[in-house]
Amino acid sequence: MLRRVRRGVRRLYERVLEREVDGVPTHIAVIQDGNRRYARGKGKGTAAGHRAGARTTENVLSWCSDLGIDELTLYAFSTENLERPPEERAELFDLIEEKLYEFADDEEIHDQEVRIRAIGQLDLLPQRVIEAVDYAEKRTAGYEGQYLNVALAYGGRAELLDAAREVCAEVEAGEQSPDDIDVETVENRVTQRPARAVDLIIRTGGDERTSNFLPWHANGNEAAVFFCAPYWPEFSRIDFLRAIRTYQSRQQSWRRTRIDRSLALLQAVGADRAVVSRLTEKVGEIPQTALDDIEDVEAEPFSAD
Questions:
Q1: What residues make up the domain containing 83?
Q2: Is 80 annotated as a binding residue?
Q3: Among residues 22, 66, 81, 292, which one is catalytic?
Q4: Read out DSSP for 229-242?
Q5: Is 203 a domain residue?
Q6: Cβ distance 219 to 49 under 8 Å?
Q7: Residues 213, 262: one domain?
Q8: What's the chain's average pLDDT?
Q9: Is 149 a catalytic residue?
Q10: Which of 109, 119, 171, 212 could form a disulfide with 156 if both were Cys (CB 3.0 to 4.6 A apart)?
Q11: Which residues lie in coiled coils (predicted)?
């Protein structure tokens, strides 16, 4: 009886969260932490935890489709994972290989036109995993409905280091002038996959760190970050909707900050209400109380003095 009540409350809460969704991120990146701890808690081997986590991955991809989120990047295997015991690496590689083939042949993937791509130092992976990556990428190469990026043997610092080496080599060869190196120069070398800036990072498992994940794509965009306690296999749709709410709160905070700064500037120069109205069209709705605050400010002409 109590279990049914709890399920009913969770379903009700989920519907409340769904109704609160107003604008979703374009690109979500997920650090899938806690598979091994989940397995230990169940008295099972690590492989069972990773397989349970793979089911959550399928759910999250479906939730992204439901909400219209264009791009999902999963931190499936970091460069640090290469230091794990050989038997555990083998289990992970088995699962990654299996899931890549499974996703590539999944009817829903093709119905939703999901393009699968891998990022990272793929040459560090076993040949059989590389072949599975190649198969998945080729099977979905023509799609643009949604993007699923799988980070394998990935490290953010290594990615930036490779970009720096490439630029240095071009400078040394006379193909690039040091004076011409700018943000776009680096951008073109680290944004081939994924193509969009990261709007939201989700990390499960309780740790509050981003672990060298997509530093260029996330930090440069000042992505919102959602840390939660559930292990990845336990991550629910409610947790996912809470993460979306965190993103929305961050966006609202940015908007409020821009409005406050703009109002402060207008007050400083003595702008009239007409100027504030034009600003409203650019940055969003300004509360009536804020308009009233500057309504009586004496207008003065702008000058370069």
A1: 24-235
A2: yes
A3: 81
A4: SS-GGG--HHHHHH
A5: yes
A6: no
A7: no
A8: 82
A9: no
A10: 212
A11: none
